[in-house]
Structures are given as structure tokens and as C-alpha cells.
Amino acid sequence: MSKRNNTYRNCLKKCNLIISISEFIKAKLVDFEIPSKKIITIYNPLPPWKINKVYNNINKRQISYILAPGRLFKEKGFSVLLKSIAITVKKRKKLRLLIIGDGPEKATLLRDINNLKLTKYVKIKNNVNYNSMKNYYLNCDMVIFPSIYDEPLGRVALEAAYCGKPIIASKKGGIPEIVVNNKTGILL
């Protein structure tokens, strides 16, 4: 064990109570030798958006709109998503993906979009105000959350569920605590 981890462990052991944002994180803390009785899980709050009506547009329009928000980091899985979309659009041309986010992988993803000949199907938008995200969720047909690392909880899944949108998500970390496979979404 590294000196840094040992320092963290010693600090956490001195706490009377630790708040975890998911059962996944709680289990990680227990693995870190923190007593379970000292840990409570309090999930992140729902977005502050007021939702008057959820629009379920699936099968009501000719083009399917997919939303994939998140920080553009390797571990968020957007490169895997682009490869999947490249396969999908060969059979389903009326599909559009909007990735909302910014980060160090943006240039790589833009290059991949060009190399995979997806410029007609995939757009990346950044600098979207958090309060305007509600409209992107409400106007899409589904949300994809392709994380390839263990998400502590998965805010994207919370936001999609809050807006009444079906979600396809990775079965990683705390995401399965929000997305119930074949009920509230699909876990892969």
C-alpha cells in the first residue's frame, strides 16, 4: 500500500461518520478497511429543473436523437461509443448523436468522427449551461452513458431518469444503482 493511501485510510478511520454517494463507493471504503457502521449513503440530489411534461418522442419522428453528455476524458468511453455508432448507422441511417461536453479528448473524438465518416451523424457541443441541459434531455429520444471506468454514481443516469428518458449505460461502478437493467434502461 502506498504512503498516500495509508494517510487517507488513517484520516478516514478517525472520522465518526462518512457520507458516500453510492453503495458502490461505500463498498470501496469497506474494502479500504473503514467500518461499515461509520458509512452512510446519501445519493446526489436530483437536478433543480422544473419538468412540466416529459416528451417521449421515440417512434414519433423519422430520425432518432441520442444524447451523450459528459466530460470528454478517455475513461468516459466516447471513443467506444463512436465505434458503435459507426456500425449502427450502416443499418440505421436516420440516427443522430449529440455529445455534449469538453475535455482533453475533444480533438481525438473530432478526428475519430471524421475518420469513421460520422460527420453527418455525430456532433460535439461544448459550453452548454447546466440549466439548458434540461432541454437537451427533454428533446432527445434516449441517452447513452458509455463510461468505461467505475463511476462513483453517474449523474448522467440521474438526469436522464429525472427527465423520463430511456438510457443505455455501462454496468460500471454505481451506475446500476440508478439504471435497473431492462426496467429503467439497458446496462451493457
Shape: globular
Ends distance: 32 Å
- How many strands appear in the DSSP assignment? 8
Indicate the multimeric state: single chain
What is the N-to-C order of secondary-structure elements (H for helix, E for strand)?
A: HEHEEHEHEHEHEE
Q: Name the helicity range.
A: 25-40%
SS-derived structural category: alpha/beta
The gyration radius over C-alpha positions equals 19 Å
Given as residue ranges, the uncertain stretches (5+ residues, pLDDT < 50) are none
What is the makeup of the main sheet?
Answer: 6 strands, parallel
| Residue-averaged pLDDT | 92
How many H/I helices? Answer: 6
Strand content: 15-25%
Strand order of the largest sheet: 5-4-3-6-7-8
In short:
The protein is an alpha/beta fold and 188 residues long. It has 6 helices and 8 strands; from the N terminus they run αβαββαβαβαβαββ. The strands form 2 sheets. Strands 5-4-3-6-7-8 form a 6-stranded parallel sheet, sandwiched between helices. A two-stranded parallel ribbon has the order 1-2.
Descriptive report:
The chain has six helices and eight strands. The model has no long low-confidence stretch (mean pLDDT 92). It has 188 residues and is of the alpha/beta class. Helix content is 30%, strand content 17%. The strands form two sheets. The protein has a six-stranded parallel β-sheet, with helices on both faces. The longest helix has 12 residues. Strand 1, helix 2 and strand 2 form a beta-alpha-beta unit.
